[in-house]
Every structure is written in structure tokens, then in C-alpha cells.
Amino acid sequence: MMDQSRGIYKSVLDAIGSTPLIKLSRLTKNLDGNILAKMEYLNPGFSKKDRIALQMIEEAEKSGVLKPGQTVVELTSGNTGTGLAIVCGVKGYPFVAVMSKGNTDERARMMRSLGAEVVLVEQIPGSTPGTVSGESLERVELQTQRIVEERGAFRCNQFDLMGNLNAWYSHAGREILQQTNGDFDAFCDFIGTGGTFAGLTKVFKEFDPSILCYIIEPINAAVLTGNKVISRGDHKIQGGGYSMSNLKFLNFVSIDGTLQVTDEEAYSTARKLANKEGIFAGPSSGANVHGALQLLKGPLQGKTVVVILCDSGLKYLSTDLWT
User: Measured between alpha carbons, how far is 285 from 216 in angstroms, rounded to an integer?
Assistant: First the structure.
């Protein structure tokens, strides 16, 4: 993906990846154990999704399914769309992002600034502003399919293309193993497409089958845990928790356990990351760290847990995450 043997990168795409791993020593001060956080919000588009955007486009180019100058279209909560706007802009592909109005305005504005066309889709009636349920996402999916057909576009489907999983398996996972020398006990991850969890779990288990890998879901949309969806599964942790039980990538790995998080737990932990660790990240990052704290307070006392810090808190300035 990138050539670090040269001091000057050929484009911003070479700056994707190789993010730092930070020990969250202040949040774990009174606990027995450690949390190691992969700083994915330091990618050029301020999220982990830059990795999969580059991987999916490069794999599509290599296979020939993406033609020169062809329009690229994808459903997004904003982060994959931002990554694709960057990658497509550099490589010369028109890009259309299709997104629910339940996602933050910052994301739409950022994608437009990067040259994307952004199509916003109304939430289902009765939805809470600032939330995206599985039903609202279904509306976005239908609009995405329509645009792909009308424009003869390439669908960069993050729920289906193996480039999503491969970005984590072939790159980020190996970075983490190198940064830690493989010395950690567990990994937990808030589930969106499942690509991050599956790719990292696969590489971690191949290295050491005893590494425990947990999924995290919103408490009212924990369908993978086997719970019933409550209040349509509405929650404020954007980028995941879509009440989808048929996620393709999870079929490639086993799940060692499940964790649930409330909106307030995700939000309060994101705020603690900011004011105690100096890390300005979003609510899904808060969900991941809260899940790791649950593990250290419970079954993994004295152990080391790896998490992903998914995106920047700058993408949530219009929400009640920050006061």
C-alpha cells in the first residue's frame, strides 16, 4: 500500500496506515490490566475507513471490475465515504456517497469538500434525529442500488467486498502484532460491517489462538448477541450497530464473547478519552474503550486488551457528544 523507503510520499494515499498504538494508562490507572489503542483517526480522512477505501479500490482496479473514469458509488455513514472521496479524487474516479440524514452534517460537508457528490436519504418516520437504525439503512441501500443502476457505476460495497477484511488482515493486524510483539491477550470491537473485527481476529488467531476476540453492540440493538431489538434499534453510536445479523465477514471467524454498551457509556468514555488521555475521538471509539474496561473489570483482570480508535471527535461537533 505504501512505500516508506522514501522520505516523500507520492500522494496522500501513501499516508494511510502505520498509525500509532497508545497505552491508555490514565483510564486504567486504578485497574489491573492495560488497554492498547490503535489511533486510526490519524489517517488522512480522520477515520479507520481510509484503509478499506484504498484496499477496495486497488483490488477492484487489479481485477478489472473498476474501469478508468468509472463512477464509484457507496452507501456510507460518512467515514467510508470520506475515505473513498479521498482515494477516488486522487485516482480520478467520480464518487457518489449515499448517506442517511441521521448521520452528522460534518461528514456530508467533508465529503463534498473532497469532491464527492453526496445524496442524503430521509430517516424512517418517527426516527430520532442523530440516529441511524437498520431500517433507515435499508432506505439508504435502496437508493444506492438505484444510483448504481442509473449511472452504470461500480458499487464499492463495504459489506461485501473482501478488500474490507483484507485491509485489516494484511495491514493493520500485522502492524499491531509488530507494535506489541504479539504480547496482548484480547481484542474487542464495535460492529459495523464486521470487516475490522473479522480481519483482525483472523490474523490474531493465526498468530495465537488463545487471543480472545469480543464483539461490541449497542445494548438495544444486540442482535448478534441474540437479543431482541428495542425501539427499532435507534442509538447514537454512528457507524455501526445496525441490527444486522447476516454480516458476511463474521462468517470467516469465531466470536469468543459479546459485550453491550449504552449511548451514555460510549459518550462518557469518549469524553474521558479527551480529557484524561488527550485523545479526541468519536463515540464508537468510546464504545470500544468502554468494552475493554468492562473486560478488565471482569473476566480479563490483569490482561492487555487491544482496541481501535475509529474516527475523530471533530466529526461530532454538531452533536451532544461535546458540550
Answer: 11
210 given a catalytic annotation: no
Among 136, 284, 285, 312, which one carries the catalytic annotation? 284
Q: What's the CA gap between 176 and 18, in Å, rounded?
A: 9
pLDDT digits (tens, 9 = 90+) for 298-313: 999 999 999 999 999 9
- Supply the DSSP symbol for 31: S
Contact between 244 and 158 under an 8 Å Cβ cutoff? The reply is no
Q: Which of 38, 49, 202, 236 is catalytic?
A: 49
List all residues 6 or more positions away from 36 whose beta carbon is below 8 Å from its beta carbon: 21, 22, 23, 24, 180, 184, 304, 305, 306, 307
Give yes or no: 297 in active site: no
Go through the domains of the chain in sequence order and give each one's CATH number. Answer: 12-47+162-316 (3.40.50.1100), 49-155 (3.40.50.1100)
pTM, whole model, 2 decimals?
0.93
Reported as a single tens digit per residue, the pLDDT across 239-292 is 898 888 899 999 999 999 999 999 999 999 999 999 999 999 999 999 999 999
Tell me, rounded to whole angstroms, the distance of Cα 249 from its chain centroid: 14
